[in-house]
Amino acid sequence: MYFFLNDYNDIARPEIIEALVKAKDEYNVGYGFDNHSENARNLIKKALKNENIDIHFVPGGTPANVLGVACGMKQENSVIAATSGHIQDHEAGSIEATSIKIETIKTPTGKLTRKLLEEKLANFNSELVTVPKKVYISNTTELGEVYTKKELEDIYNFCKENNLYLFIDGARLAAALASEKCDYQISDLSKLCDIFYLGGTKNGLMLGEALVIVNDELKKNFINLQKQKGYLLAKSFVPGIMFETVFKKENGYVDGATNAYKMAKKLAQGFVDKEYELAYPFESNQVFVKLSDSEIDKFKDFAAFELMGDMDGKKIARFVTTYRTSIEEVDGFLSKI
In this structure, are residues 250 and 313 in contact, taking their beta carbons and an 8 Å threshold? Predict the structure, then answer.
């Protein structure tokens, strides 16, 4: 069975497992005040080239999104997101459970733009509506798109001009950084938003994300909020060890995603060569293909993938690669189709 269902389908990268096993006999203090977590934070600050940031380790993407949206917000505030944004239709109302309303923008792709934000914000001019205070984007987007540096700068400049915070969902941030379309470095990230996270779950770690707070206004009492929402790990040293492991190696955070990108590119080109039509342009480790019902039934006999809706009378199938996807797997799948 060729497995392209998701990018969190194994326990962890070998070096992660080795590091955890090596630490099995240690005694660590809790809640992120251990030496591993502190070292990981210092390594991340070095990679980001910014010492004036706060870093908190959380269990997964939903906690990171809940905390990333909720911090610094009042009950009358709202967050602006694309209709396709992950917080809108993949978080089971967890954002709204914080009393923060999501105000959505229908987008032609998965991206927000300055123009779309300008048009949307013009609607919030009375006491009968929410007060937008934060903009949410994901990089990569739900459609596998990668924001360019200019696109991020345009959005962030708009946010600063209109007293809004910019939050970047980085569940697949490593995939964005590994893409050939990406024209910035990991060290640029803290200059392009107020808060973001470095995804681990979808980047070969056992679990966990590193939430990075850039704006000083969002740092106050964050750990209290984290505890209140149930996302403060007593064993924070576990993700601490994992992030310490990948960041102590130069480019270690993006290494696995680089392989995922190369394999996805090969897979996307293979589909095109065999005259299948891509639903969206290829940009990262997610490949979206238009398939007929009969093709889907055929593929399911030897491959695992996800269906993502309809387009032009066909179904959209999503194929996802990871750090451990091999050339043999991609070639084997392509030969079968």
Answer: no
Query: What kind and span of H or E run contains 44?
Result: helix 35-48
Of 230, 238, 292, the closest CA to residue 98 belongs to: 230
Instruction: Note whether 141 and 110 are within 8 A (CB).
Output: yes
pLDDT of 141-162, one tens digit each? 999 999 999 999 999 999 999 9
Q: What is the pTM of this model?
A: 0.97
**pLDDT for 91 beyond 90:** no
- Between the alpha carbon of residue 240 and those of residues 139, 168, 183, 204, the distances in Å are 23, 21, 29, 14
Q: What torsion do the CA atoms of 119, 123, 124, 127 make, to the nearest 10 degrees? A: 170
How far is Cα of residue 104 from the mean position of the Cα atoms in its chain?
Answer: 19
Residue 247 tokens, joined: 């960041």
The pLDDT tens digits of the residues spanning 184-225 come to 999 999 999 999 999 999 999 999 999 999 999 999 999 999
Q: In this model, does residue 90 exceed pLDDT 90? A: no
DSSP 244-312: HHHHTSTTHHHHHHHHHHHHHHHHHHHHHHTTPPBSS---SSEEEEEE-HHHHHHHTTTEE-EEEEEET
